[in-house]
Amino acid sequence: MPRRLPPLAALRAFEAAGRHLSFSKAGDELLISQSAVSHHIRTLEASLGVTLFRREVRAVSLTPDGARYLASVRPAFDLLVEGTDAVTRTAKATVRVNLLASFATHWLVPRLGRFRARHPGIELMLDPAIGLVDLETSDADLAIRYGQGNWPGIEARRLMDERIAPVASPALIVRGPAIAAPADLLGHEILFSYSRTLFEWDSWSRAAGLDLSTARRSLLHDYNIVLQAALDGQGVAIGRHRLVRDRLASGQLVQPLTLTVHAGIAWWLILPRRKPTRAAAAFVDWLAEEAAMDEFDSSVEAVL
What is the architecture of the domain spanning 164-250? Predict the structure, then answer.
């Protein structure tokens, strides 16, 4: 007897709409119109003989039948994705990593020679991005992000802690005004990288007892741009120690104040719900080893 299955396109539309609880967001994900999603849902409801969604003026919600059906359909799609990954990605041995460009430039890339030596058959594809990525719908195998790890709906695994402190170019220090106390920072341009909360400067200034509300600010898009502006003497930036240690050691940047803050800030590894490919698992294991070996200088003062 042939298996009784609804149309696959209708099932995809139902799974996406049930996950987002939105026909329009499902359409965006599937690259079809909202009306096409609605048509697929009606087709599926007619095929099953049940109502899957309650249609309200500006929202949709699952009926009890819809919730039960989604609980079966989602794992089935996860298995399809996992099986497809096992065939295609294992054959190509490719790992796509979604990450901040600054982390790739200043921390990851200098270490990649060791990964290639251990896993010559695995190709890495680095995909720089700033915003959070939905790994359930993205082509990325994993993501690396920076912050305090409190992103709603995201399962983040701490990769390694970070410490922060203001840094500037020697030329700016010589030019002045002098920076001998936190309040002296108000005499300089404060350089920010993109963030919804500007949490780095907020965390450091709170530990220092400094009110930055009157500071001159330059909000720059990417941390690489912030570092370049600091190197050019355009202002004072927050130094992420894992990314700027070489610049500090070479004298290209200096840390004018001793206060170094942790405040729960870290680098985070984000993995999807699906089982990782062998290549992705190998990269994750290597990344954890490298992070464990990357120890801070114990002489650095920290406020935790």
Answer: 3-Layer(aba) Sandwich (3.40)
